Amino acid sequence: MARADKTAAQPAASTVRLMVRTVAALGDMPRYRANLGPFGREPKLIEAEPWQAEALRADPMLAVAEVKD
To answer: How would you classify residue 36: left for phi > 0, otherwise alpha for psi between -120 and 50, otherwise beta?
Structure first.
């Protein structure tokens, strides 16, 4: 009998929770970065690896805020 892994439902310890949306200058066009997206004007809650979070924060067309638990 296989045992269910309870940690599979939880995010990895190295992931970061972010709220991401595009800036007004981009209008309604969707934006993709770091294998994530599409991002639009409505904020989107995501879980990202540290390298993805860094790439999202470096994009001037995205507004990125870290979400604390």
So the answer is: beta
